């Protein structure tokens, strides 16, 4: 439970980082959301064997994280925390796609390993971009931005509730786990039957707490629309940010930048 509490605290820190005052934080949330969306589309549109052409896309999250004063070690730890999902998704690729697609000297590399590397790289790039977006915008501002961009109010509200209630659910899990540990002597109370009962109680407790939270929000005037204190206004700087980075992403998608650079350097040497 201590590790779960630590993870909750660290994930909450990501939202706290979004309230800094940097040039990236001062950009309109809609500009950052739209730019990140273009980034994600370009990254996932590559073929399943693309590895080297994806490397230039690392420029965007690195630059934004640097300008947004986001700690590199913190982002890397969050990336590692969710990495097992990507590892499991493509783990059978090397076993199912065994034909040799690349040779490095006498070493033959199968197409399955290349596609597996592509999955891991794309997962890392997209997850890192999402973490940087939350760390420089805040999840509430992101929901408000997608609502202003034309998404249904219900979708934005449900997305915000999903994010907020994740912490409520995790808090209930921690409290119930601590209570069980305090009432256990030796190995008593550690069986699967106890955990099954805890799961049922957890669902009931989170449902009851969600009702109390909703009633409190209704009493305070909640009408289903996401509101933030900051007034959203697109400036020339926001438009330049979106168009500039989008042009870079499209260029990275249309041209194999590592190959072009390699050919250019080889031409200079020869």
Short structural description:
The protein is mostly helical and about 270 residues long.
Please explain how this structure is put together.
This protein is mostly helical and about 270 residues long. The protein has two domains: about 1-135 and about 240-270, no CATH class; about 150-235, no CATH class. About 70% of the residues lie in helices and about 5% in strands. The chain is built from eleven helices and two strands. It has helices spanning about 1-15, 30-45, 60-65, 70-90, 95, 110-135, 140-150, 155-180, 190-220, 235-255, 255-270, and strands at about 100-105, 105-110. Strands 1-2 form a two-stranded antiparallel ribbon. A hairpin with a 2-residue loop joins strand 1 and strand 2. The radius of gyration is 23 Å and the shape is globular. The protein starts with a helix and ends with a helix. The mean pLDDT is about 80.
